[in-house]
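Good day; I would like, with your permission, to put a structural problem before you. What I wish to show you is a protein chain and, alongside it, a tokenised description of its three-dimensional fold. Thank you for your consideration; the sequence and its tokens are set out here:
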Amino acid sequence: MIGLGGMLTNDELMTLLEISQTINSTLDLEEILDHALRKAADVVEAEASSIWLVDDETGELYVASATGVREKEVRRLRLKPGKGIVGWVVKTGKPFVTSDARSEPVHARDIAEMLDYEGRQILCVPMFSKGKVVGAIEVINKSQDRPFTEKDAYHLSIFANLTGIAIENAKLYAMLQRENRELRSELGKNPTFGDIIYRSEKMAEVIEITKRVASVNSTVLIRGESGTGKELIARAIHQASPRRDGPFIPVNCGALPETLLESELFGHEKGAFTGAIARKLGRFELADGGTIFLDEIGDMPPALQVKLLRVLQDKQFERVGGTKTIKVDVRVIAATNQNLEKLMAEGKFREDLYYRLNVITIFIPPLRERPEDIPILAEHFLRKYCLETKKKIKGFAPETMDILMSYHWPGNVRELENAIEHAVVLAKGDIITPEDLPFNLRGVEPEIKLMSLEEAVREFKKRHITRVLHETGGNRTKAAEILKIQRTYLSRLIKELGIKA
């Protein structure tokens, strides 16, 4: 047994930094352990190594990962609590080092004989997480038959603690996923579609298509103006699909320059470019078994379009600066607010990629084309921001709703949400007045959509009847009285104008 001490050189500090970044770049427990163990063996120049974890139910120790000539046999081992050098380390929480394992009373000779492998020099250190020993790392036989040093033990202990934290994070992530699955099972339904607020027939059609495509594995292209909720639809598809227990990884292709976007999507190897001090897993690797959402796909540079096309065709790629081919099982959902057909004609978007992405297309209509959704969305955002600001606001003044219903909403649902948040924050009374709205709604004429007089009259009727129905809680008799028309005529107008009451 030894104490820990020693100082780290700059190279050693960089090695530990690289290890920390790598093992914390994933929540896959097996990947964490395998990578951690191979690095541990390299750092202390060991012939073989193993990571032992405590079985929470039995208290026994089992091998979670191993390296060396007896790797397969070692992975099948289990130890009773306290048995062997590993058992002693886990029980006491102290490191152990020996240059002659055969002379140590705690050495499990029967296991060494069974493996037909002589471990002369052994170094074993505990792994801690939140002050509790969760396992141990053991390294065997230092190169050139040298003894393990106090510095080796110091390095390995730092390494073990980094691994212990990463293991705890991976276990917590797995537990949250399990609880999430159980909660969905208890609810007996998928709650995702309940997050999409709508009343219009046009959005009802979108949701119906979304539900149908969720069960298959086809690539989906979601098209619509900015702010219409393309990512919300993408998440709904994922959550309703067989991949719901896998990750959903969103990437905004227009937010990063080409060099960073390639690394973000496909990852990079250490030294691939200046600043690449460690291997980084890309979003496609992180999305393995789940769904990747490529937003603003029309902004993807041509060079990356070629690489993306290969992933769609072969489900494989290489990291930046790497030569190893990586295979993934990922469903791709892309989205754009651009005219891809025009971009193809201009040579800015590959035709073959377009047809690969355009397997199933979902068009989300702009808010101005579904005015029936404005009141229900406004009420939803009102409740949301009243809850956040702890304000008690009952609703909207009639003239406020008139403004909301007549505005063109170039920013769509996102602009409506921002407007309601602004109004809630500034509201002084218990009702939203026009003065509470952003200036561009109350002080500037809304954008006018050019249309025929007949179309304008039809749109005005649709918006006005929708607002009146909203104010009356859907009561057609009361709405007809306000509109000063017969109830039967109102019912006919609702049907003709496509208003979903």
Remarks:
- Residues 1-6, 184-191 have pLDDT under 50 and may be disordered.
- The chain has three domains: 10-174, 191-363, 368-496.
- Residues 10-174 form a domain with the Beta-Lactamase fold (CATH 3.30.450.40).
- The first strand starts at residue 46 and ends at 54.
